[in-house]
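Sequence, please.
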């Protein structure tokens, strides 16, 4: 039986050193990406408020604003975490941190999906991609947030049936609050940001189908993101793993 060649201590030390350098680079790159996301999201909100002179309270009718503010805050905090991880060469694997990031990535994925669906002639809602806030909130922030989560966050294992639900936190809170406000008439239908929240001019069946579809898509996206994260979070070290196996 052919035996595998022995690996010297020097080769092991070199591998650990190279692996460590790649880890630090990964964390620094993701810190920059997180700060970029926070900058894009924050400036988009401020642009809407002070350049377009929109009321922030009024803009919070849109899930996009909820998601952008939440994602910006989480990304800024996680950017600091990444810097600390790089400095200490350690990994933050707390489940609450993971699910905050998962919720952020899921929300941004749903926002992006709704925008893409809105570009089709099937729905009356027309997404904004031409203005600075619209471009940042509907395209740049969602795409970079998902990339950051998939390629950086340490996986927590195979998803359990209830785990993806934790990724729909912001979606669930938004849907509950907006349905209550529009359903009780606290906000008039004229202010409905999406057609399924227009309680005066759409059927109950249409509203229920839309809400069910959003939750179903949110759950599916959350589950998919968790699975992809398990596969893609080690892309940074792919060549190092191959080198180790060959050794």
């Amino acid at each position: 039986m052919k035996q595998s060649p022995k690996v010297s201590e020097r080769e092991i030390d070199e591998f650990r050193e190279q692996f460590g350098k790649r880890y630090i680079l990964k964390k620094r790159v993701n810190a920059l990406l997180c700060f970029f996301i926070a900058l894009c999201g924050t400036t988009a909100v401020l642009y809407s408020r002070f350049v377009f002179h929109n009321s922030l309270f009024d803009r919070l009718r849109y899930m996009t604003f909820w998601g952008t503010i939440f994602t910006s805050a989480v990304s800024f905090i996680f950017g600091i975490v990444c810097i600390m991880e790089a400095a200490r060469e350690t990994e933050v694997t707390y489940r609450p941190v993971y699910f905050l990031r998962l919720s952020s990535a899921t929300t941004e994925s749903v926002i992006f999906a709704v925008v893409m669906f809105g570009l089709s002639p099937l729905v009356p809602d027309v997404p904004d991609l031409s203005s600075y806030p619209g471009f940042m909130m509907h395209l740049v922030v969602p795409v970079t947030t998902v990339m950051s989560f998939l390629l950086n966050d340490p996986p927590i294992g195979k998803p359990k049936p209830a785990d993806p639900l934790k990724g729909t936190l912001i979606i669930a809170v938004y849907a509950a609050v907006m349905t209550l406000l529009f359903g009780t008439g606290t906000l008039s239908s004229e202010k409905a940001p999406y057609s399924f929240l227009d309680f005066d001019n759409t059927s109950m069946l249409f509203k229920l189908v839309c809400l069910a579809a959003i939750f179903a898509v949110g759950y599916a996206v959350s589950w998919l993101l968790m699975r992809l994260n398990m596969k893609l979070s080690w892309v940074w070290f792919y060549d190092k793993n191959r080198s180790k196996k060959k050794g």
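Residues 9-50 form the longest helix (42 residues).
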